[in-house]
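Database export, one record per block. Field names are fixed; values are copied verbatim from the stored entry.
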Amino acid sequence: MDYGRLTMDLSTLHHGVSRLKKKKRLGRGTGSGHGRTASRGNKGQYSRSGAKCAHELFEGGQMKLFRKLPKRGFNHNTWRKFYAVINVGDLDQHFADGATVDQKAMSEAGLANGAIDGVRILGDGELNKKLTIKAHHFSKSAAEKIQAKGGTMEIVAGPKPPKKGKMKPRPPKQPQAGVAR
């Protein structure tokens, strides 16, 4: 095999190849090749200025499919609250006897992380310490275990519910005195 024939002169590699493509000059007369309609075709939406480019939901001016389909169902995402669920057994492991446990202390201990609206205490596990616990909700079994060890519970007020009926109806018009109807 003759390797001399496979070599290439790198100095002539890009001869005749422009690095930057020249801009297409539109509307410069019929002699330019891009005059008159400026490469836009004769008629239609895309021959006009201000035409929007088609996107994935565009169906050529026909009524879009998602507008034809019925809108069904309802979800509670506007009002849904996310609570961290913590068992009394976890509190027993992470806190010392006589400690005051609130949402901030639980997040520092790694029990109530993330974006949450409150804390719920459930009764799974054993509680061997006297704790003062501040939470948004206590289960019945958790409350019994906390009180059995002499601990106290404080229910913290939850997040405010959204206002309903902000727009009040107008009062009915009162008839004017002395006007016959």
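Remark 1: The chain has a mean pLDDT of 85.
Remark 2: Strands lie at 83-87, 100-101, 118-122, 132-135, 137-138, 152-155.
End of record.
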